[in-house]
């Protein structure tokens, strides 16, 4: 069967006010979506495999309300203590409660409300850099020049870039259309299939990567997730 063509449409969560009840409900649904995609164990596995030494600073781009990163921190904090994690999103969504939950694990969460393309300037002068940058359900918002520019930017930010994105195929699309049966709201019922249609398969992310000197790893992980890792050869 021919692969599903990639198609980007605006996701409703991206245009709603952060405090809109539909947006808040959809962000709650994202926790369930991430669980169904096994995104936490898959991303934690990629991080453990590709980040050679315990990191001191991690950047997440498109971090949303930080709950996905918190889930990762719970899986990683024992082996990786005392991490500072910068949670970049153009919406200011990370609550004090989430920051306290990071602190309870011994991690310092620093929310940063900025557009990803404002990096690295948005970090301020003298930022010491990152050991790793990751994205979950974020890269699929971009295509063409913007996606290539974003990947070039991430390559400048850290020696390891990890992404977990929707795997684009008919089975994922069907599963995303069934989320309503699990109680997902109207925004999620629109955005989940839209995200699958904008997702990746094969080596599509690797094909957009232009920064030299990185080893690329890209594969389907679990039923619904496209995993990507770019690791700078020779470390930093
Ligand atoms: C589908 S959500 C994923 C959130 C989180 N990573 C998770 O897995 O729960 C995508 C996030 O990307 C953010 N976003 C979209 N475009 C962005 C941009 N250009 N710069 C920064 N954040 C952006 C949105 O505000 C949204 O919070």
Walk me through this protein's architecture.
A seven-stranded mixed sheet has the order 3-2-1-4-5-7-6, sandwiched between helices. The protein is globular, with a radius of gyration of 17 Å. The chain is of the alpha/beta class. Strand 2, helix 4 and strand 3 (about 110-115) form a beta-alpha-beta unit. The chain has a single domain (about 10-230), classed as Vaccinia Virus protein VP39 (Rossmann fold), CATH 3.40.50.150. Helix content is about 35%, strand content about 20%. It contains eight helices and seven strands, in the order ααβαβαββαβαααββ. It binds S-adenosylmethionine. S-adenosylmethionine binds near residues 62, 116 and 141.
In short:
The chain is an alpha/beta fold. It is built from 8 helices and 7 strands.
Sketch the topology as an H/E string, one letter per element: HHEHEHEEHEHHHEE
> What is the annotated CATH architecture?
3-Layer(aba) Sandwich
Ranges with pLDDT <50 over ≥5 residues? none
Task: Determine Rg (CA atoms, Å).
Answer: 17 Å
The small-molecule ligands in this entry are: S-adenosylmethionine
- What is the overall pLDDT average? 96
Number of helices: 8
Task: Please describe the biggest sheet, giving its number of strands, its sense, and whether it closes into a barrel.
Answer: 7 strands, mixed
**How much of the sequence is in beta strands?**
15-25%
Question: CATH superfamily, please?
Answer: Vaccinia Virus protein VP39
CATH topology: Rossmann fold
Number of domains: 1
**Helix proportion of residues, in percent?**
25-40%
Shape: globular
């Amino acid at each position: 069967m021919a692969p599903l063509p990639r198609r980007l449409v605006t996701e409703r969560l991206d245009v709603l006010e952060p405090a809109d009840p539909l947006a808040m409900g959809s962000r709650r649904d994202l926790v369930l979506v991430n669980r169904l995609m096994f995104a936490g164990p898959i991303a934690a596995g990629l991080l453990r495999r590709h980040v050679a030494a315990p990191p001191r600073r991690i950047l997440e781009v498109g971090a949303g309300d930080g709950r996905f990163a918190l889930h990762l921190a719970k899986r990683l904090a024992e082996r990786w203590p005392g991490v500072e994690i910068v949670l970049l999103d153009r919406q200011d969504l990370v609550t004090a409660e989430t920051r306290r939950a990071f602190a309870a694990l011994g991690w310092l969460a620093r929310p940063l409300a900025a557009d990803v393309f404002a990096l690295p300037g948005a970090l301020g002068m003298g930022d010491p850099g990152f050991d790793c940058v990751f994205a979950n359900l974020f890269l699929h918002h971009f295509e063409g020049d913007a996606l290539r520019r974003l990947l070039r930017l991430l390559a400048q930010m850290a020696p390891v870039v990890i992404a977990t994105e929707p795997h684009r195929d008919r089975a994922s699309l069907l599963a995303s259309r069934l989320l309503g049966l699990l109680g997902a709201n109207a925004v999620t019922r629109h955005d989940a299939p839209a995200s699958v249609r904008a997702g990746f398969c094969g080596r599509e992310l690797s094909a957009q990567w232009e920064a030299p000197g990185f080893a690329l790893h890209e594969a389907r992980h679990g039923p619904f997730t496209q995993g990507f890792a770019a690791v700078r050869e020779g470390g930093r």
